[in-house]
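Practice problem 4.
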């Protein structure tokens, strides 16, 4: 699964001022990311505001993205939710053409037990031939996929190939890296700690900041994959303030502000998200100009 070594970007979904999906902006973004040297793209993860897109919009965005990418880089679809039956039905009806894997977050709101999380992913794994990347993001879901549950899933289902880890829990990371089967992919899902996670053995990142700065981030990740930590430290430190600003007033509003400054797409978001405040926007514009 070398396609998932390196930099993946959880793409934003550009919107027009009236709230409709901006497909010209999406096309610009795809070209920006491919030109920036990323290894793969994630369509309609959390950063893509998938929660506020209709089923018809999601299918259209997935189809458009697959056609625009045209197999030039890897492509992953974000398909998750807290209704297991509904997620399975979405996956059954998903047009897999052009896609290399599914990224699926653990169920939110319900707060299932570890057995419930296991059974949720078991149902998904048994209903698709595509590789599956688990997504652990407790700050959004309200529950954690334990290291033991991840290892159990990795051992029981060959098409569960990795996990995007955004828990920030290094005790969990240590256990997971110690116990996981060989070849199971440990992927950073948290831009600020990609460097220390890769020091533990993560194979790369699925990034938010990479939407705006794909070249800078990809270069850092490649340095880490080549064990050049001295060079990677310099790149990491140069991105700290930009990364902080991307999340200061919520994501993806921050990175959409940077994308607007870069002329790639607008900064519109859908409620309940709102655009960043004026002070944050000013700081983002300044930092983007300094780094781009």
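Answer key:
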């Amino acid at each position: 699964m070398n396609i998932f070594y390196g930099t993946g970007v959880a793409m934003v979904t550009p919107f027009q001022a009236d709230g409709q999906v901006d497909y010209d902006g999406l096309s610009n973004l795809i070209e920006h990311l491919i030109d920036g040297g990323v290894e793969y793209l994630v369509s309609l993860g959390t950063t893509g505001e998938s929660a506020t897109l209709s089923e018809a919009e999601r299918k259209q965005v997935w189809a458009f993205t697959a056609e625009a990418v045209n197999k030039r880089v890897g492509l992953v679809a974000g398909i998750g939710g807290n209704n297991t039956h509904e997620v399975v039905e979405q996956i059954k009806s998903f047009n897999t053409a052009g896609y290399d894997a599914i990224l699926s977050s653990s169920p939110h709101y319900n707060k299932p037990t570890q057995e419930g999380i296991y059974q949720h992913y078991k149902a998904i794994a048994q209903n698709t031939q595509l590789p599956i990347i688990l997504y652990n993001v407790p700050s959004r879901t309200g529950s954690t996929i334990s290291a033991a549950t991840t290892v159990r899933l990795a051992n029981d289902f060959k098409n569960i190939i990795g996990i995007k880890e955004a828990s920030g829990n290094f005790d969990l990371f240590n256990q997971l890296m110690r116990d996981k089967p060989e070849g199971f992919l440990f992927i950073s899902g948290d831009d600020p700690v990609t460097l220390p996670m890769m020091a533990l053995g993560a194979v790369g990142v699925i990034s938010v900041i990479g939407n705006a700065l794909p070249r800078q981030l990809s270069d850092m990740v490649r340095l880490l994959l080549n064990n050049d930590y001295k060079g990677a430290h310099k790149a990491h430190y140069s991105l700290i303030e930009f990364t902080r600003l991307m999340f200061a007033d919520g994501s993806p509003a921050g990175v959409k502000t940077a994308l607007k400054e870069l002329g790639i797409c607008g900064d519109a978001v859908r409620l309940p998200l709102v655009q960043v405040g004026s002070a944050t926007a000013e700081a983002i514009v300044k930092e983007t100009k300094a780094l781009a």
